Amino acid sequence: MPRKPKYLGKIGERGLGTELRRLREKAHVTCEELGRELGCSPNTISRLERGLRPGTTAEEVHQILTYLNVPDEERKGVLNMVKGYAEHGLLEHSRATRPGPRGAYRRFESRATKITSFEANVVPGLLQTADYYHTLLRVFDVAEERFEELIARRLGRQALLSRPNPPDLVFMMTEPMLRRPFGGHKVMARQVRAIAEASERPAVSVRIVPDSVVEHPGVAGSFSLLEIPREPLVVGVETRNSMAYPEDPEEIEAYRLGAERLINLTLDDQQSRSTLDAIAKELEKAR
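Structure (tokenized):
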């Protein structure tokens, strides 16, 4: 008799599980302690946190959040993750006052061995300079008193690039976006130089979609593909206030194939570095 395929967990279950684990560790509660409260084994808690326990109910999650003393605002966000994720994938919301990746994305990101992303309008967060992100926060009408905290978080997230054994990172972005003096010519020139410097790292590949390519799969919007060992491919589709993770295998495959088509339309690594250098020089002359 053929062996039953190993259950790898749906994206909604995995996203919920990583968030519950973060909250449990933040509260300094062990799997054993939480299991006793819920009347289950530590292994059940471990499976839930790894996204390997299908059918977790909102009532169970509410009980966990209550035991961990999770604040109401944070609790609401976690409970929203439970609703409908089994059918539609994971939809993670964030406050409009904090643009950038959400908690589940950051935890998928930290475990990935390869991340491929496409950005049409904004420099990828892992490559943004402090001045560029400062401009982005201002554009999003974020309260100025929060700038220092949020910029520190953004720069802290970029430690991923320099950690031992970093993931392979493929950043695809459009040439028109890089030429726009977002924040002014001086800010954008430094930003483009920073991208070029990052592209010299062994694990980083920066690929530019040139001006001449106007018809490409990226016109549908920005997206990321995260490859995590022994888990299905994670696709993240970001808007201003949310990150969607589709569950439908056909939709995931469409993004994977779209990324393949898109990379074939980009300049290669050396051509992209030369283009970055040329753009930076033009911006520096204009300021």
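The chain has 13 helices and seven strands. The chain has a mean pLDDT of 85.
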